[in-house]
Design goal:
The protein is mostly helical and about 210 residues long. Helix content is about 55%, strand content about 5%. It has 10 helices and 2 strands. It has helices at about 10-15, 25-35, 40-50, 55-70, 80-90, 95-110, 125-130, 135-150, 175-180, 185-200; strands spanning about 155-160, 165-170. A two-stranded antiparallel sheet has the order 1-2. Helix 5 (about 80-90) packs across helix 6 (about 95-110). The radius of gyration is 20 Å and the shape is globular. The two termini are about 30 Å apart.
Length: about 210
């Protein structure tokens, strides 16, 4: 619910059918089951209520870490996960720079196939693009997991006060750790070549 992956209606049904009384205090359980899911502004008020029960930073960390682990394990959802990393980079998670702009962007706008979407490519073409990501992709995924586990990157689970789109986090990496594993000059030339194509196709281009 907090992450937006569950609708208000689905969450309401879950509240009424689950055994939350075993997990929450009597007061908290009463507040939740008596909540008016139909009133105006219900979603915002519900999220504020849920923050009493959930550590948003820990929740966000486990969610992102799970996606990184799945990608490292070459989950069948790998292309979708890489596209998610691109979206998360655009939403403010700059520590996912290599994963998002180096690999995820190739899913959003496949190289050498700018007139086709990822879904329109043949399986062979998709496999060839994915194969070209290695071994750098594994190294970038391991870096991101290490940063989360070591506290080098601390996710807050919050969004910027003046922009509900951008996600907040604290970055304690060294300057060396912040440097890209990918060849920036090569990637920069590639971006400059594709930028007009990307804008034309509606792919978001972060500054």
């Amino acid at each position: 619910m907090i992450s937006g992956e569950v609708t208000l209606e689905a969450f309401e049904e879950w509240v009424y059918t689950s055994s939350l009384e075993d997990e929450l205090s009597e007061e908290d359980h009463l507040d939740l089951i008596s909540f008016n899911f139909k009133k105006n502004g219900a979603k915002y008020e519900l999220i504020q209520l849920l923050k009493r029960f959930v550590d948003l930073g820990e929740y966000e960390t486990q969610k992102i870490r799970g996606k990184l682990e799945a990608a490292l394990n070459k989950d069948e959802r790998l292309p979708d996960l890489l596209a998610e990393f691109y979206d998360l980079r655009c939403r403010g998670y700059v520590f996912l720079e290599d994963l998002g702009m180096g690999f995820g962007l190739s899913i959003e706008a496949p190289p050498k196939h700018y007139d086709q979407t990822w879904e329109e490519l043949s399986r062979e073409e998709q496999d060839n693009i994915i194969a070209g990501f290695y071994p750098e992709l594994d190294e970038c995924l391991k870096d991101a997991i290490y940063w989360l586990d070591s506290g080098k990157i601390v996710l807050t689970g919050e969004k910027e006060l003046d922009n509900d789109y951008f996600l907040e986090y604290h970055d304690y990496r060294t300057e060396a750790e912040k440097k890209s594993r990918l060849f920036k000059e090569v990637r920069k030339k590639w971006w400059q070549f594709w930028k007009p194509k990307l804008k034309q196709s509606g792919v978001f281009w972060p500054d």
